[in-house]
Amino acid sequence: KLTSLALQPVITPELVEGRVHLKCSYRRPSSRLPLRYVVVWSRLSPPGKKEQIQHDTTLQSFSYIEMNGVNLRLGDTVFCTVTAFSRDVPEPQSLPEESKGFYAGIKFVPESLQIAEDGTEHVLTILSTVPIVCPGHDDSCKITLQLSTDDLDSRFPGPPNIALSACRVELPCSGSRCAAATLAVTAVTDFAQDGNRVSRIAAQPVGRRDLLWRAYTPRDVKVTVRDLPTGNCYSFTDPHIITFDGWRYDNYKIGTFLLCRSVSRAFEVHVRQWDCGGRRSATACNCGVAAR
């Protein structure tokens, strides 16, 4: 009986004669019957429907399709569906079995981030699911990605709310395998109560002129930054001082004073006060500030 053979098709990338191919491999059943296989390749089109792009009939337990940048491009999610039938008799056929979707291109892991303005570094992994073809038939190659960030919230036209540990990463490749790169993403502590904001990380391949890569833009990474309340302290007029914990006092002295110093990082604020009371009263006013 051919109804269910557990063919379990799987898609893997491979370099064949210097060109990028996808390979659909499946289990050859232990049945003594000589079998033939029909392999249907399809890709997920933008409206979310599967579009057939290749139809193979083979005696082998695998099938190839080339990523030529025309009918199969970077950024496509690809499937292969396999059906088996007896070599001598076209009927009956087994039940068709479909592979998991294979995304061909640059992937970010995780695909989105939820972080907070607490200084924590979050690791973002960047990898290429397909090998890189090198000019000059070199066995070792790389893909270079230029990274950028921007704020998706139109209320804040200023700088983005996230910082990256690098603006450019390289993914070295050898044969059909490419190494992954890691990146640290941190939320910018802006000392403002501006609510949760959404930013994105974009990547653009640079230095690639071949048809497969030059028209390809990887998917953006959505980063949601959770706003956290920050402490405030004040020194104003002649001068009245309010500390982080709400303690209030006055300082009428003239001179340079240490206003604030962090015990965990290189951060401190100095303030300079001069005489502004004249002859009638001894009063000092802020006249300068220095921050590190």
Automatic annotation (TrEMBL):
Stretches assigned to coiled coil: none
Record's GO cellular component terms: cell surface; extracellular region
Gene Ontology molecular function: signaling receptor binding
Keyword set, alphabetical order: Disulfide bond, Signal
Protein name: VWDE protein
Ranges for domain VWFD: 231-292
Keyword Disulfide bond among record annotations: yes
Origin superkingdom: Eukaryota
Species this chain originates from: Caloenas nicobarica (Nicobar pigeon)
PANTHER family the UniProt entry points to: EGF-LIKE-DOMAIN, MULTIPLE 7, 8, VON WILLEBRAND FACTOR D AND EGF DOMAIN-CONTAINING PROTEIN
